[in-house]
Amino acid sequence: MSAHPGLFLSLEGGEGAGKTTQRALLGQWLESLGHEVVLTREPGGTALGHTLRQALLHGEDIDARTEALLYAADRAHHVASLVLPALRRGAVVITDRYLDSSVAYQGAARSLGPQEIRDLSLWATDGLLPELTVLLDIDPAVGAARRSEDPDRLEREPDAFHLAVREQFLALARAEAGRFVVVDAAASPEAVHEQIRARVEPLLPERRRPRNPCAVPARRALQEPS
């Protein structure tokens, strides 16, 4: 049992995996069941997070340790100011990226050490983990081909970087099979959504369902400019 009445879900995966699309579809379905839904992302789920997102993805080049610490700072603030308050009031929180992204990108691909980066994020969030993490697995080349905008700092990294990210995500899913579900993100958005729904539905016992199942509009942490 969780220490709060809400439900915390995270979507992970490489570039172009479809996390934003699946977050929206999942949120719409949960709204139809009458849940309060909070859609957010890392970085960028708060006003401070948006500032950090601009620096991390669209700013000047920074060294790997600075990058890792900025992501951890964003995550600490995100959890304390948005995620935990929503969970405590019983909302379903769906985040596009969480600590597993840092483990894959900074821990593995940046060679800072997966365990070190995981420990940093767990300290930053006081140990908060999602009840379910959906890994949208996709070949990095396929994900890159889906991109329609100019690449950001991470997207511009070489193929070897993105392959390391994918391998680490899959390793995390094997190590924590009870928390992860791996979905083939190359399938149609509808097929992917159905697989995610099948895993989320058992996590929605009656204690989390409102008595009056009228739709509750999903709440966004803030507007999400790129």
Describe the fold and architecture.
The chain has eight helices and six strands, in the order E-H-E-H-H-E-H-H-E-H-H-E-H-E. By secondary structure, it is α/β, with parallel strands linked by helices. It has one domain (7-220): Rossmann fold, CATH 3.40.50. A six-stranded parallel β-sheet has the order 5-4-1-3-2-6, with helices on both faces. Helix 2 runs antiparallel to helix 3 (64-88). Residues 207-216 have low confidence and may be disordered.
CATH superfamily: P-loop containing nucleotide triphosphate hydrolases
Shape: globular
CATH topology: Rossmann fold
- CATH top level label: Alpha Beta
Strand-residue proportion: 5-15%
Annotation field: number of helices: 8
Count the beta strands. Answer: 6
Regions with little confidence, pLDDT below 50 for 5+ residues: 207-216
> What is the C-alpha radius of gyration, as a whole number of Å?
17 Å
What does the largest sheet look like?
6 strands, parallel
Which CATH architecture would you pick?
3-Layer(aba) Sandwich
What is the count of structural domains?
A: 1
SSE run: EHEHHEHHEHHEHE
Q: Which structural class matches the secondary elements?
A: alpha/beta
The helicity comes to: 40-55%
Our measurement of the CA-to-CA distance between the termini, rounded to an integer number of angstroms, reads 36 Å
Strand order of the largest sheet: 5-4-1-3-2-6
* Arithmetic mean of pLDDT: 90
